[in-house]
Amino acid sequence: MSEKIKWCGYEWLTQERWGQIHPVKPKAWYDDTAIEINDDGYLILKTHKNQKYFPKLDIKANIGVGLVSCTEKFKYGRFEIEAKLPEGPYLWPAFWTWAFESWPPEIDIFEAYSNKRGSYFN
Q1: I need a surface site. Which of 18, 62, 70, 75 has the fewest CB within 10 A?
Q2: What is the pLDDT of residue 119?
């Protein structure tokens, strides 16, 4: 079960709104232990080996990844990120905004696949 955290005055899920794992991307799962808010108030999202089995999907994911999804709507404002992108297989660091009520639309600020083919899978 995912937890919720408070950060920058908002409440955030430590997973996607629909769950802890994407059934089409089973190598990694959204792991709340891969999320840290440091003493300066910076949100740090990490990846680490942390195997978890999802019996309803019969999927064993080997990598825990940090992800946050805001539970509140934003109207206006500025979004800012300072990021050090990781290297390694099966990584997909990204910064997205998306509609609160539906999917899509999505606005990709950036997506940075860990291979030259532009794919999470290879």
Answers
A1: 75
A2: 58
Residue (of 98, 118, 38, 30) closest to 68 by Cα position: 30
Over range 26-32, report the average pLDDT. 90
Sign of CA dihedral 98, 103, 104, 110: positive
CA dist 45 to 35, 63, 78, Å?
Answer: 5, 13, 20
Give the integer Cα–Cα distance in Å for 66 and 32: 6
Residue 69 CB neighbour total at 10 angstroms: 16
Residue from 94, 3, 6 nearest 45 by CA: 94
Q: What is each CA distance from 41 to 44, 69, 81, 110, in whole angstroms?
A: 9, 17, 13, 23
pLDDT score of 16: 85
Encoded tokens for 79: 């979004």
Name the pTM for this structure: 0.79
